[in-house]
Design goal:
Elements lengths: L1 H17 L10 E6 L5 E6 L1 H7 L5 H16 L10
Antiparallel strand pairs: 1-2
């Protein structure tokens, strides 16, 4: 499933690049997340953020990263970072 997600994201980026010269073009990156109560949301990021992180953080890992942040915000912990 992650492979299909990555392929769809790449196709979307390719199409956005083709339309880049259009005066009305708006390019955003969105990463979905799910809250503990089941509601979903979308983090909207500038395309520059995605371009800068693409080499270090593949698309599927970006979603996992955002979900980890959401989970941490909903369930904050006070453990030191050095303890699992």
């Amino acid at each position: 499933m992650e492979e299909q997600y990555d392929q769809l994201l790449e196709e979307s980026a390719r199409r956005a690049d083709e339309a880049d010269d259009a005066p009305h073009a708006v390019h955003r990156v969105g990463i979905r997340f799910q809250c503990g109560d089941g509601t979903t949301g979308l983090v909207r990021l500038s395309p520059g953020w995605r371009t800068g992180c693409a080499a270090a953080l593949p698309c599927s890992n970006s979603q996992a990263f955002v979900q980890t942040v959401v989970d941490a915000v909903e369930h904050p912990g006070d453990r030191p970072l050095c303890k699992p």
